[in-house]
User: Fold this.
Amino acid sequence: MLRIRKTRWKIAYVAIGGVLFIILSTAIRPYLLPEPMYAVVANVLTVLLYFGGVRSFRGAGEPIEPPRDWWTMTSQPRAGFVIGSLLSLSFANGVFLAASGSRDLAFTYVLGALVDASLSFLYFRSSIRLRRVPAQTAPEAPRWKPMKR
Assistant:
């Protein structure tokens, strides 16, 4: 399985996912998918993007080869709390838009809010469990060979 350890590749993964969503919403959506179906497809792709990152990203000192526990979303509890908080804000925004926005888009907003709430719960739960469990660490491989004199 692909393992992404460097920050620049993690940023590239997220950026490529964002570009794909922009392409999906501007180029493909008007021609192929009606509104309720587009919301389902977009949210399924969102969940797949999140879980692809969760299974692929590795933190510093985290073992590369063995898969993470099924409940582990990040390598550090702080990262899970930050991502969970951002998803909670997105959930609140979705609820606000569903309550005050157009009735035509209410299903889209509610479905997005439910996905954000579910992902937020998973990140918070993972961080709480990570605080209780000692971190698995692997010895870092040296980045250069020591000089011989």
